[in-house]
Amino acid sequence: MTPAGPHGQLDQFFLLSHDLFCCIDLDGRMLQVNPAFETLLGYPADALLGKPCGKVIDERDHGVIEGVLARIVEGRDVAAFEVRARSVTRALHWLEVDPSLGEGVVYVVARVVTERKRVEEHLKRTQQLFEIVGKTALIGGWYVDMDEGKPIWSDEVCHIHGVAPGFQPTIDEAIAFYTPTYQPRIRAYFDACCEHGISFDDTFEIITHDYQPLWVRVIGKAVCDSDGNVIRVQGSTQDITQRKATERQLQLLERSVESSTNGVLIVDAGHDDLPIVYANTAFERITGYSRQEALGRNCRFLQGEDTDPNTVKQLRQGIAAESEVHVVIRNYRRSGAPFWNDLYISPVRDDLGQVTHFVGVQNDISEQREYQAQLAYNASHDALTGLPNRMLLTQRLEQGCLVARRYQRHLAVLFIDLDDFKPINDTLGHEVGDFILVEVAKRLEDELRPWDTIARFGGDEFVVLLPDLAHENDVIQVVERILKRLATPYWQRGGELRITASIGVAMNDGLISEPLQLIQQADLAMYKAKRRGRNTCQWYTDDLNRKVSERVSLRNALQQAIEQEEFELYFQPQIHGPSGRVIGVEALIRWQHPERGFVSPGDFIPLAEDTGQIIPISDWVLTTACRVAKQLNGLGLGRITMAVNVSPMQFQRPGFLASIQLVLEESGLAADLLELELTEGVLMDSAEQAIQALQDLRQLGVHIAMDDFGTGFSSLSYLKHLPINKIKIDRSFINDVVSDHRDAAIVEGVLTMAAKLDLDVLVEGVETAAQYAYLRQQLCDYFQGFYFARPMPLEALLSFLCEQQRHL
Ligand SMILES: Nc1nc2c(ncn2[C@@H]2O[C@H](COP(=O)(O)O[C@H]3[C@@H](O)[C@H](n4cnc5c(=O)[nH]c(N)nc54)O[C@@H]3COP(=O)(O)O)[C@@H](O)[C@H]2O)c(=O)[nH]1
C-alpha cells in the first residue's frame, strides 16, 4: 500500500501507527486504509477499497455503523463508540471507533480494545458470580476503610438488612440494626478489630429495616499496611436464620431424645458392621454401658446365651430389607443381668431415599414381662400346691396326645381322688386339709418323672399325665407306687393322719379324638375304684363308657321329663300291725318315659342327685304329695301321714325349711301329717348343721324318719342327738331276718335301742307272712312292704283305703 497524500509526517504517522485509520465516503464505502488496518483484519487494501465498511464489521453491529453514518451526514456530533470487526479469518476484534467528518468523507480512527473488553467481560461475569453466590448463600461483603470510617455494604448485605442496594450507613447506624442484647458485643468486636487487628466470627440477632428478626453470622478481619497499621476492616455478613432455626430444631430434638425414658440408638448404615454412632442417656441407664463404651460397636454386644437366635434373625432380615422391625429380645446389661428389650428399629433415609442410618428405640420391659409371667403362672397353676391347674393340664394333655399319636407311644391319664378327705377337712379344719393336699402334691412329685405332669384338678382331685410310655403295663408300677406312698402316714403337729386314694386310669389308644375324654374316662374309672372299696385303682373300659353314655342320655331325658312333667306319684301304704290300719303312705316317684318305658327311681334319682336335677323333682314331689295328703285326710278314712323322701342336696339347700313351710301353707296340710324321710347321708357332710336343721323342722311340727337305717353312716353316738321320730329299718336286714340270725340280731338290737330312745320303728321290705310274724313277735308295730301293698297310683290307693275301711 502506498501512502496517500503529500503531507510527509502525517503520512508517516498514517503508515506507522498501531491504530487503525480508514477513510470512507458518505455511503460507507472504504476509500483508504492504513497498514495497521490491513494487518489486523488480514485483507490487502485492494480487497477493501471501494467496498462497504460492513465487509469488516460484524453483522451484529451493521446497524450501529449505519446509525453513526446517518448522524454524521445530518451533521450531528458522534462520540466514540465500540463495534466488533471480523478479520478475513473471521477472528473477532473489538474496536473503539472515533469518526470525524471531512469533505465528503468520514475519517475514522479505530483502536483495538479486544483485551480491555475481555477483562471487562471477565469482571462483569465475576461480579455476577459473586452476586449469585451472595444471593444463594445469603452472604454479602462489607468493608470499612479506616480513613473513611464508613461501612461500604454489598448489595447482598443491603438486602439482608432490608435496605436498598447502595445504602451506606454510618458505623452507629450499622450497629443499630443489631438487637440491644448484641449491640455491645458487635461494637466490642469491631473496636478490637480496628484497634488491635483481632478477627471475629460470631452470630448475632438483627432487626431488619422492615422489622424482621434475623440471625446473621458476621465475620470480620483487619487489613494492615506494611507497618502493621490497620487500614481497613472487612468481612462478610450471612443470613443464617434458617440454619439457626434448623439448629434449634435439632437441639430440641436432641434434648427430647436425651430426656426420653426409652433408650435410643443410632447406627451407621454406611458401614457393614452397623456401628453405633449415637446412644442416649436412657440407653446408658438401661444397659449400664456408657456412650463411650457403646459408640463404634455393633449392638450384638448386648446379646447373650439366652438370646433367641430366631429373634436375632428377624432383626437381621428387617435391617437387610431396610424395613421397620419390632422384636422383644433378651439382652444383657453390663453387669451380666438379662433384661427384656422391647425394640423398634426403623431405617433413616436421606433426601434421595438412601438408608443412611437405623434408629433403634428400646424399652426395658423386664418388670412387665415378669408380671405377665407371674400372671400366666397364676393362671396356669394352683395357688395352694403350685401344681399345674386344669388349664395347663389341658394344654399338656393335648400336646401329650399329639406326641403319642405321632411317635406311637402310650399316654396314661391317672385320676386320683383322696378317700374320705372331706371329713378330715370338716373335722380337723382347712389348715390340716391344706397340709394334706400340699403333702400329697409333694409325694406325687417325688414318685414321678420330671416330664410327667401332675395337676390339681380341684378339691382333693389330682390328675397325672404319664406321656411317652413304651408299654401300657408301665403304668401299673407307677400306680402301685403312688397308692403306697400316699397311704403312708402324714404327720401334722405331732399327730398321725392317714389317708388313701382311689385312682382311675385311662390310656390313649390313639383313637381318642378329643383329649379331654381321657380325663373323663379316668374319672369314671376312679369312681369305679371308689365303689370297689377305695385305696385301689381301676382301669377305664368300654363298658364303663357305655354306662357313661347311658348316663348322659338319661340325664337329657330326665331334663325333658322335668320340663314336660312326665312324672307320677305312687303311694305305698304303711301299716300299723296291731290294728291293721293304714296309718300312712310313702310317696314314691314313677317315670314312664315315652320310649324307654318305666324308668326306676333307683336309676334316675341318684343321677338327678349328681346333676342337681333332684331339686325341681323334689319340689314337684313335695307339692304333689302334700296336696294328695290333704285330700286323703279329708276323706274320713282316718289320719294318714304322708312320707316323702328328701335327698341330701335338697335338705342342705339354703331355704329348705322355708320351702316346707310354704308347701304346707299352700296345700293346707297340717305339719304333723308330713313325714320327711332322710337317709344317714344328710348327716355325712355337716352333722352339726343337719341336727340344727332337723330341730327347726321338728319345731315346725313336721315328723322326721331316718330311712334305710343301718346301711350308712351309723355313728350311733349321733343318734341320741337327732331330733327324729322314727327309724325305718332297711329292707336288706329283713330279707333273711327269719333265717339269718345275724340280721335278726341287728333288727332286735335296733328295736331295743329305739324303744330306749323313745323312737318309733317301721320295718321296710316286708314281703312274706313269715317275716311279718317274726317281726310282730319282736314287738315291731309299723310295717311297709309288698306283703301289705305295692306302691300304687292315687286311684288304686283310694280303692285300697276304702276296701281296708270296709274290713275294719
Ligand atoms: N328323693 C327321692 N327318692 C325317691 C323318690 N321316690 C323313690 N325314691 C327312692 O328311689 C329308690 C327306689 O325307689 P322305688 O323303686 O320306688 O322303691 C321303693 C319301693 O318300691 C321299695 N319297696 C317297698 N316295699 C318293698 C318290698 O317289700 N320289697 C322290695 N324289694 N322293695 C320294696 O323300696 C323303695 C322305698 O324305699 P325307701 O325310700 O327307702 O323307703 C329308693 O331309694 C327310694 O327312696 C322320691 O320321690 N324322692
General description of the model:
This protein is an alpha+beta fold. The chain has five domains: 8-112, PAS domain (Beta-Lactamase, 2-Layer Sandwich), CATH 3.30.450; 119-245, 2-Layer Sandwich (Beta-Lactamase); 260-370, PAS domain (Beta-Lactamase, 2-Layer Sandwich); 381-540, 2-Layer Sandwich (Alpha-Beta Plaits); 554-807, EAL domain (TIM Barrel), CATH 3.20.20. It contains 29 helices and 31 strands. The strands form six sheets. An eight-stranded mixed barrel has the order 23-24-26-27-28-29-30-31, surrounded by five helices. The protein has a five-stranded antiparallel β-sheet with strand order 2-1-5-4-3, with helices on both faces. Strand 4 (92-101) and strand 5 form a beta hairpin. Helix 16 packs antiparallel against helix 17 (474-487) and helix 21 runs parallel beside helix 23 (656-667). The longest helix has 24 residues, at 114-137. The structure holds ligand LFPHGCPZ. The site of ligand LFPHGCPZ has 23 residues, from strand 24, helix 20 and strand 28.
